[in-house]
Fold this protein.
Amino acid sequence: MRRKRIGILISGRGSNMVALADSARDGRIPNAEVAVVVSDQPDAAGLGKAKERGIETVVIERRGRKREEHDREIVAALRAKSVDLVCLAGYMRVLSLEFLDAYRGRILNIHPSLLPAFPGLDAQRQALEHGVKSTGCTVHFVDETLDGGPIIAQRAVPVCDDDSVETLSARILAEEHKLYPEVVSLVLENLAKSSES
Ligand code: GRF
């Protein structure tokens, strides 16, 4: 059976991309590989981390274009690499309907809160400001809503009294790096089953 091909979209640091890439390489995401990493930011730190791992990278900047036009170029890059599953990993843009339709049901995102709490930017800061006693991370399918698509899995972490945004983010991130590869394995397994039937 052909290995499933993952395309990862980043805008920055790329630590979740690394977690996915290393999990696929080490067989913790069975029968899969990261086929391409796409960044909309030419200086994203994650690009170097992907290259170090021998993964092909593509930079596709928005350059003032309409979202649809930008996304069309990204979808073409993903299709050129025969990508089966798209993983957003710190990708800071909302996807156009055209992109969603091209990969309907095959786009995942990771978010650093227990959705539906604290969607959008600065989820960890939002959690601290609300005084919640636990928060966490969520992997969900991407649809046209902001961080509102169907939830696949979540992991909770405690919020400590002396937490800063940094300490809380680090605690959540450690869970993100475990959860995302687990969910990707599950989703790929289900995709393989549905393509057999
Ligand atoms: C993570 O906290 C992720 O949940 C959010 O953006 C951050 C990306 O970090 N969507 P990284 O680029 O994967 O290190």
Observations:
- The longest strand covers residues 32-39.
- Residues 4 and 32 are 4 Å apart (CA to CA).
- The pocket of 5-O-phosphono-beta-D-ribofuranosylamine is lined by residues 10, 12-16, 46, 89-90, 110-112, 173, 176 (CB under 6 Å).
